[in-house]
Amino acid sequence: MKTTGLYRRLLPSVILVFFTLAISGQPEGRSVQNFNDGWKFFKGDIPDGQKTGLDDSQWRAISLPHDWSIEGPFSRENYSCTGYLPGGTGWYRKSFVIPENEAGRKIFICFDGVYNNSEVWINGNQLGLRPNGYISFRYDLTPFVKYGERNVVAVKVDHSLYGDSRWYTGSGIYRDVKLITTEKVFIKQWGVNCRTTDVTTEKATLTADIALTNETSHNVVVRVVSTLMYGNMPVGKAAKRITMGSKEESVVSQVFNVENPKLWDVDKPELYSLVTEVRGRELLDNVVTVVGFRTLTFDPEKGFFLNGKNMKLKGVCMHHDAGTLGSAVPKEEIARRLDILKEMGCNAIRTSHNPFSTDFLDLCDAKGFLVIDEAFDEWELPKKKWLAGWNVGIPGKEGYATYFRDWAKRDLRDFILRDRNHPCVIMWSIGNEVDYPNDPYSHPVLNTEANPQTGAK
Question: Is 433 a catalytic residue?
Answer without folding.
Answer: yes
